[in-house]
Amino acid sequence: MVRSIYLYSAGLENYYVFFGDGFTNPLHIGYFALYINVAIFFALYFFQNAESKKHKFLWLLASCLLVFSLFLSSSKAGIISFVVVFILYGFYMIFLSKSSTNKLSFSIAFVVIGVLFSLFFTGNSKTMLRFKTAVSQITETEISPISEGSTQARIYAFKTSIEIISENFWLGVGTGDIDPVTISTYKENGYEGALKRKLNAHNQFLQTFGALGLFGFLSLVLIFVGLWFFGVTQKNELIIFFTTLCFLFALTESFLETQAGIVFFSFFSLILTSQKK
Questions:
Q1: What's the CA gap between 164 and 273, in Å, rounded?
Q2: Could you read off the pLDDT of 25-36 as tens digits, one per residue?
C-alpha cells in the first residue's frame, strides 16, 4: 500500500496502481490472494476463539483489512474462493454450531464483512472491470483460440491438458516434458492466445495428470484427502481452511509448479499437521 501511494502521489502511476499487479508487486496476484485468504480465515478462527472483547475486535478488524487487501488484489479466483468458503463457514457456524456464543459472534462478523465486501463492489474499480471482462469473454463474445484474454486462453489450456492426458493416461509425459509438450500442442492446434501467454495447464490436477499419469494424479488427490481427514478427525479448523483454499486455488493455477506455491503448501501442511489442537 505504501508503495502504491508513493507511485501514485509522485505521478509515476495512475489510479490502477492500487489494484492487481500494481498492488501485489512483486508477487503474482493469484498467490497473493491465496496467502491473504488463508490469513483471513485464520483471523476469523482466532476471532471466534478470543476470550476478551478487545481481542475479538482486533481480530475482526484484521479480517476486514485483509478482505480489503484481497479486493485490491483483483484476483478472480481468490475472491471467488473467499466467497465460497466464507458462505460455507458462515452457514456452519450460524446454523450448525452448538455454541450460542459462536453463533452470535460469527453472525456479527458475517454481517460486517458481508456489508464491507458488498460496498467494495459498488465502485468502478479494476477489480470490477476484471470480473465484467471475464463474464463478457464467456457469455457475450465468441470463444476464440487466438484470444489472449485470461479467461478464454485458459479454456484452451484446459482443452490441451485433457488432450495430453487422453494420449498419456497411465504414465504421463514426464515432469520435464509436460511444458514443452503443452506448447507444442498449442502450435499444432492453433491456440495462439494460450501460446503467446505460454500457459501451462493452469490447473494443478490436470498438470500433474499430464506429467505423471493416473498414479501421480491419485497421489495428489490423496494428499488433499489426507489433510482434510486429519483436520476433521483432530477438529482442527485451520487445517480445513488451509486445505480447502489450496484445493480451490489448485483448480485455477498449477501452483505446485512454482516456488511461491510449493514452499507455501509444504511448509504450512507440515506445521499445521504437527499440531493436534
A1: 35
A2: 889 999 999 999
**Helix intervals (H) in the chain:** 2-9, 20-24, 29-49, 53-73, 76-91, 100-120, 126-139, 150-167, 178-189, 192-197, 204-233, 237-250, 259-273
**pTM beyond 0.90, yes or no:** yes
208 close to 200: Cβ distance less than 8 angstroms = no
Please give the Cα distance from 76 to 130 (Å, whole number). 7
**Residue 211 burial class via C-beta count within 10 angstroms: exposed 0-12, middle 13-18, buried 19 and up:** buried
Cβ density class 100-122: b for 16+ within 10 Å, e for less:
eeeeebbeebbeebeeebeebee
Q: Directed axis angle between helix 150-167 and helix 204-233, to 10°?
A: 90
Could you tell me if 120 and 71 are in contact, meaning their C-beta atoms sit under 8 angstroms apart? yes
pLDDT band, residue 122 (cuts 50/70/90):
confident
Are 245 and 85 in contact by the 8 Å Cβ rule? The answer is: yes
Distances (CA, A) of 68 to 54, 74, 133, 161, 232: 21, 10, 21, 35, 30
Q: Long-range contacts made by residues 2-8, C-beta under 8 angstroms, separation at least 24?
A: none
Largest CA distance in the chain: 63
Nine-digit cell string for 217: 494424479
